[in-house]
Amino acid sequence: MLDRWYTAEKRDYAVFANRYPMNGELNHQQEKLQAMKTWCEKERVTHTPTIFINGYKLPDEYSIADIKEINAYE
Which residue, among 24, 6, 30, 5, has the nearest Cα to 15 in the 3D structure? Predict the structure, then answer.
């Protein structure tokens, strides 16, 4: 489903929603969505992917390519 959305040449939500009907299920997810929003705010997750190493967010000054240069044993 997500592949179809992200690889589409033209993203048309009405067409997508017709192909994958939710049957009102999204209306029952507000509590879960709020819990996720609260967690993201608490953990300062502002985008995806957000990289965590041993429970710590990768600082903005570093990129994923820098990980190979980090020696955790020094």
Answer: 5
List Cβ neighbours of 5 (8 Å cut-off, separation of 6 or more): 11, 16
The torsion angles phi and psi of 57, rounded to 5 degrees, stand at: -70, 135
Q: Which amino acid is at 16?
A: F
User: In this predicted model, what pLDDT tens digit does every residue of 32-57 receive, in sequence order?
Assistant: 999 999 999 998 888 888 888 888 88
Q: Cα-flanking dihedrals φ and ψ of residue 56, to 5°?
A: -110, 135
Residue pair 16/4 in contact (Cβ under 8 Å)? The answer is: yes
With the C-alpha atoms ordered 23, 27, 28, 32, is the resulting torsion angle positive or negative? positive
- Enter the tokens of residue 4: 């179809």
Instruction: Give the integer Cα–Cα distance in Å for 40 and 52.
Output: 13
